[in-house]
Amino acid sequence: MTDTPVRAAPPASPAAALARYTTAPDPGPLLALNFGFARARALGTALELGVFTALARRPRGTEDLAAALGCDPRALGDLLAVLTEFGLLTGDGQGLTELSRAYLVEGEPTYLGDHFAEVLGQWDRWSALTPVTRSGDRSGDFGAPAARGRHPGLFGGGFPLAVRVAFAAVEALGLRRAGRVLDLACGGGEWGIALAAADPRAEVTAHDDPVLLGSARARAAEFGVADRFRFVSADFAAPPFADAGFDTVVLAHAGRFAGPTATARLVRECARQLRPGGTLLVADVMRPEPGRPALSRPMLGLSLLVNTADGAVLAAQDYRALMEDAGVTAKECVTRGLVTAQTGKRR
């Protein structure tokens, strides 16, 4: 960034000069955008220190909390004031709000702190956005199957958000006869769990990195369906599953990280494992149909630019084309929040 001289015609009067500034749009949104990194860092520091978990045990004053966390009271007080402003602490700064109690207390089933920490850990990658935008050279590893276990907060830590979407989509699609299910790259296991809940006879094979399978196993137990799960850690390039061995195959939240070429291969692999007439369920954040709002999908696309080697947000019609090429006839499609779920039948 360089200093740019101000070029403006001499005003007719001080009032005319002032009018340039008083009639300009409110810069508040730009200021908030520019300072957004600091807000995220404040939340990250609170999670790292264990502020919310400590206050969940009992309300504490600043001095008491500082002693418990090993912090400087004055510095911690400044942080608590910001967290109160965020709506994460009660007005006196000594207790949790409903929002923070739901998602920021470590050990709770709905804890999202690991997911937030994963996102904050991307800071160095985001600092490379300018050179990546100029050159197009990308080197992020999030799309590599071998990297999934190194990022459990990303691929499994969002379960509290993902599970509600999975259950809603499975219900909307009427998938009540899942049968033998393969959940490929299962992450937190939410889609296999939703299918098992919808079909009491379903038997689910959950496949992923061993680190993520541990989380999926715990979640399946939480929902009371673990007895109908088996967990398989296997090579992503050649999963060891027989041809036509499953009634339903799920590919969820893998395509956007892998990129178009690898996604085409994954869809073909899913089709290979489906029996004729079986159901392929692809779920991901997808580009909206023309004329529909994009919500935060463009920002997610930018994230894939800096965090993956080839990741991209594909459109539902792209997935339908990949299905057709793999011998799967596209069927129902529903969108819940940012996630679109597309089904197809194996020919």
Automatic annotation (TrEMBL):
Residues 181-278 form the Methyltransferase domain. PANTHER family: O-METHYLTRANSFERASE CICE, PUTATIVE (AFU_ORTHOLOGUE AFUA_4G14580)-RELATED. The keyword Methyltransferase applies. This is RemH protein. It comes from the Bacteria. The keyword S-adenosyl-L-methionine applies. Keywords: Methyltransferase, S-adenosyl-L-methionine, Transferase. Pfam families: Dimerisation, Methyltransf_25. Residues 33-105 form the O-methyltransferase dimerisation domain. GO terms for molecular function: methyltransferase activity; protein dimerization activity. InterPro entries: COMT_dimerisation, Methyltransf_25, SAM-dependent_MTases_sf, WH-like_DNA-bd_sf, WH_DNA-bd_sf. GO terms for biological process: methylation.
